[in-house]
Here is the input.
Amino acid sequence: MEKEVIEKLKIPQDVFLPLLFSIKFGGDWSLKVKSTNVMAIKEKITRFDEEKMIGYTLENVFLFLNPVILNQEGIIYRLEKCGNKKEREIVKRPYKTTIEAEYAIKASLNPLTKKIRLKKVEGPFNFTGSNAYGVSHEMEHLLSDEIRGEPFFEFEYEIEE
Ligand SMILES: [Zn+2]
Here is the structure.
């Protein structure tokens, strides 16, 4: 099934992997395929019908080839757990980010209709909040391999009375 899609999109098979991982295992992914940086970012939108009391969470997975950061705004301190590490770390992420890519596709997964719609999309791309953190995290992997954060044990407990 994926093979046909990859052929139609005319992209190398390895390049499709982060998108496939994001679809199958969830989350954001990045990978270096020879000289190409590839990144998949997942955006979730829940649609809920208040009258029928039923809905679904639509997942938009963006696949970017050779993404570059154009702009970043704001600083958010947060805890993140990287797949390569055992514990969470304190990191700084932008609140908003704008990126551009050589090639981008958007895969929309609808768990209600069980359809994955693929579409070639043009930048620039704006992300806010959790998606901006995800972009920043994956870009850090692509540009410097490892995520550099402060260890969790530097927290101090405080009892409120
Ligand atoms: Zn990571």
The two ends are 59 Å apart (CA to CA). Residues 2-152 form a domain with the Peptide Deformylase fold (CATH 3.90.45). The chain has a mean pLDDT of 92. DSSP finds three helices and eleven strands in the chain.
